[in-house]
From TrEMBL:
GO terms for molecular function: hydroxymethylbilane synthase activity. The modification S-(dipyrrolylmethanemethyl)cysteine is found at C248. It holds the Pfam family Porphobil_deam. Keywords: Porphyrin biosynthesis, Transferase. This is Porphobilinogen deaminase. Residues 10-218 form the Porphobilinogen deaminase N-terminal domain. The porphobilinogen subunits are added to the dipyrromethane group. It comes from Palleronia pontilimi. Pathway: Porphyrin-containing compound metabolism; protoporphyrin-IX biosynthesis; coproporphyrinogen-III from 5-aminolevulinate: step 2/4. Tetrapolymerization of the monopyrrole PBG into the hydroxymethylbilane pre-uroporphyrinogen in several discrete steps. Its cofactor is dipyrromethane.
């Protein structure tokens, strides 16, 4: 292998949240190990995004999925950073000209976690309970199964959410298992929700690393830490999302699994108020992942009524 020996440190861009920093550190550690480089060969650069700056309004009011990425991508294009580490769940399906997002670390647990201070489960949650979430997907999936529940907007990091539970703002919330695991938050009272009960968001649990398309050093380095199975699963999931024109404002879930050379993709779309959910699955050769994603999306779209995606906040 062509071992790049960087004369200047590789600048790794990231958001400043504890989870983002943990993911940037994991990326640096994997690169350092792969190339037997000291940590000084890397600089971690924290970048504040619009999504980080505006913390007092629901995400859906401030804009779509670029909210947490635009400033980071600008910094890469201007050379202030060389690579950027992202939660793939938050990434738009298209990247700006001049940037490539094709490196993935091994995927973490894909499931959501049900969080209640008493350690209870979703099934045991009393009728009429209040659940805090800012995710339209979780909200719609929850209301679909439990129309008796009341959903309140919940933003902020794990600590903030736990504090809100302690204050009684809500009886339960949801977080991705991946985030809790990456932060070593094993003491949080969490119950994993099976994929059958709640299909996760497309790309949940996956870390992606973006680079300039003309940066040969970054390309060589990232190739050494890329996880091919994660890339194959995300290719199918993100093609599904792209075909649905998915954004923050559309409750969409999707999960690909691999069994040898066969990929199975499950997908679900919901009305925002949870009143209707359409789901389906498709299997085929791994190499056809993007085609399978598009086919699954087309099948679901053909079953959706014309007003299926209309924005309805419900009550
Ligand atoms: N939208 C926020 C976000 N983006 C990625 C994760 C968790 C980690 C992951 O799924 O990779 C979270 C928080 C959450 O859903 O609990």
């Amino acid at each position: 292998m062509n071992l790049p020996s960087p004369h200047a440190p590789l600048k790794i861009g990231t958001r400043g949240s504890p989870l983002a920093l943990a993911q940037a550190n994991e990326t640096r550690d994997r690169l350092a190990r792969a190339f037997e480089l000291p940590f000084e060969a890397f600089t971690i650069v924290v970048i504040k995004t619009t999504g980080d700056r505006i913390i007092d309004r629901p995400l859906k009011e401030i804009g779509g999925k670029g909210l947490f990425t635009r400033e980071i991508e600008d910094a890469m294009l201007s050379g202030d950073i060389d690579i950027a580490v992202h939660s793939m769940k938050d990434m738009p399906t298209l990247q700006p000209d001049g940037l490539l997002l094709d490196t993935y670390l091994p995927r973490e647990d894909v499931r959501d976690a049900f969080i209640a201070l008493d350690g209870g489960t979703l099934a045991a949650l009393p009728e009429g309970s209040v659940v805090g979430t800012s995710s339209l997907r979780r909200r719609a999936q929850l209301l679909h199964r439990r129309p008796d529940l009341r959903i309140v907007e919940f933003r902020g990091n794990v600590q903030t959410r736990l504090l809100k539970l302690e204050r009684g703002v809500a009886q339960a919330t949801f977080l991705a298992m991946a985030g809790l695991n990456r932060l070593n938050m094993t003491d949080v009272p969490r119950t994993p929700v099976t994929e059958d009960d709640m299909l996760p968001a497309v790309a949940q649990g996956a870390i992606g690393i973006e680079r300039r398309s003309d940066d040969a050093r970054a390309a060589d380095m990232l190739a050494a830490i890329h996880d091919t199975p994660t890339g194959q699963r995300l290719a199918a999931e993100r093609a599904f999302l792209a075909a649905l024109d998915g954004s923050c404002e559309t409750p969409i879930a999707g999960l690909a699994t691999l069994d040898g050379d066969t990929l199975t993709l499950r997908g679900e779309i919901l009305r925002t108020d949870g009143s209707e959910a359409l789901s389906d699955a498709i299997s085929g050769p791994v190499a056809d992942g993007p085609k399978l994603g598009r086919a699954l999306a087309e099948g679901l779209l053909s079953r959706a009524a014309t007003d299926f995606f209309d924005w309805k906040t419900g009550t």
